[in-house]
Write a structure and sequence with these properties.
417 residues; 5-stranded mixed beta sheet; Jelly Rolls; mainly beta; Immunoglobulin-like
Length: 417
């Protein structure tokens, strides 16, 4: 293996041939650098090869001469004819070669006998033009984040350049990145650290610079990537909804208007039989996806009346509220509770009894025990209980009072007030 800067045909060849010839018709360089000899009789075709290491990318340049005819090959591919023996001709490979070790071969065809020889000398490299960036773009751009409501911070940068260059360095930089790239004419790289956008629907931006270099120079191109990925609402919510009818189906209330976001936002709950929509009459589901400015409606079934009347003040007209509490998550906010409050049931009945005396509900019921002279029997007329909303206890200021409910034929004692 010989470096290009010191290679000639007098370098050690792979066949081990060291013969050299001279001839008055040959140029000085041909006489100095040839490997050759003399043929008696008919001519011969010969090919010798060497290992050569090119140190720079480009079109490799040689000066050559041959007696009688011949060509130069690199890795078995013909590059050019070598020229006549009386001159010293500059030749250049038609294509670029990257740095590396190659097999260079030279042929000689001696057409009629007599002297033969071949001579060559590596003299330089024709550098390619600087790289030219043809395309540099991002996809997606803008990054509008996920339709599933998850903010995204990624995109992919793509580039291409002219294929006539050998890239010796490639990188992409931004105010937070310094990415080394493979030394290739085209490629792509993933970006996963895009900035967070603001909450005023203005996208965040970041500028990326692509730089491709070779031995002749560099080319740069800039690209601005936009990103919308803010799913943190800036508004407040209506979390208490009162006067819900008991067991009301499709109870629908607005919990607020989505604001301060610049991407699709997911609204959801872990509660069962609860859905959301941007319309108060259709399109309900859980989860549901909203965009900035849309109103969020929540739909559910109201809770039943609260039947607990314990610890209420004497004579209370109404019972207690019954709350259905629904955890709601909007975008990246922590879950908050929305309460659908079923109204209080009425528990006080206004009775209007008509006193009737001398009517005996049962034979010989002594309302005053052991005093047959003071046996009084009082029975009211039928009274419809239609003021109360839930089953309640009947009480009286006379502990001897009994009631007959729905003609059940069973009189029941009631509790004293």
């Amino acid at each position: 293996m010989t470096l290009d800067s010191s290679w000639t045909t007098r370098s050690a060849n792979n066949q081990g041939f060291t013969g050299q010839n001279s001839n008055g018709a040959w140029s000085a360089q041909m006489n100095s650098l040839n490997i050759g000899g003399n043929d008696s009789g008919s001519g011969a075709n010969r090919t010798y090869s060497w290992s050569i290491t090119f140190q720079s990318f480009g079109k490799q340049q040689f000066r050559t001469a041959v007696d009688d005819q011949g060509s130069i090959f690199i890795d078995g591919v013909k590059q050019f004819d070598s020229g006549g023996y009386s001159g010293w001709t500059l030749r250049e490979t038609p294509n670029n070669f990257a740095p590396g070790t190659y097999t260079i071969s030279m042929s000689s065809a001696n057409s009629g006998g007599g002297p033969w020889g071949m001579a060559a000398d590596w003299v330089g490299v024709s550098l390619p033009p600087p790289p030219e960036i043809l395309t540099f773009y991002a996809d997606p751009n803008p990054q509008n984040s996920s339709v599933s409501g998850s903010p995204l911070y990624s995109t992919t940068l793509y580039w291409t350049s002219n294929s006539l260059t050998s890239i010796t360095s490639a990188k992409i930089t931004s105010n937070v990145d310094n990415i080394s790239l493979p030394n290739s004419a085209s490629g792509n790289t993933s970006i996963t650290n895009l900035p967070q956008s603001s909450n005023n629907n203005t996208p965040a931006t970041r500028t990326y610079t692509l730089e491709l270099c070779n031995a002749s120079g560099c080319d740069t191109e800039t690209l601005e990537v936009n990103v919308r990925n803010d799913n943190t609402p800036s508004n407040t919510w209506t979390t208490l909804h009162e006067d819900i009818e008991p067991n009301e189906t499709n109870a629908t209330k607005s919990i607020g208007t989505l604001s301060g976001v610049d991407m699709v936002v997911k609204v959801e709950t872990t509660a069962s039989a609860v859905t959301f929509s941007s319309s108060n009459n259709s399109g309900f589901s859980n989860p549901k996806y909203f965009t900035n400015g849309q109103t969020i409606y929540l739909r559910t079934t109201g809770a039943p009346y609260n039947t607990d009347i314990s610890n209420l003040p004497a004579g209370s007209e109404f019972g207690k509220f019954n709350n259905k509490v629904i955890p709601v998550t909007v975008g990246s906010l922590d879950a908050f509770n929305v309460t659908f409050q079923t109204k209080k049931p009425k528990i006080k009945e206004d009775f209007d009894f008509s006193s009737v005396t001398g009517i005996y509900p049962y034979e010989d019921i002594d309302l005053i025990v052991n005093d047959p002279q003071l046996e009084f029997y009082v029975q009211t007329s039928t009274v419809t209980v239609n003021d109360v909303d839930i089953p309640v206890e009947i009480r009286s200021d006379n502990p001897n009072t009994q009631v007959l409910i729905n003609n059940s034929n069973t009189w029941k004692n009631i509790r004293e007030i």
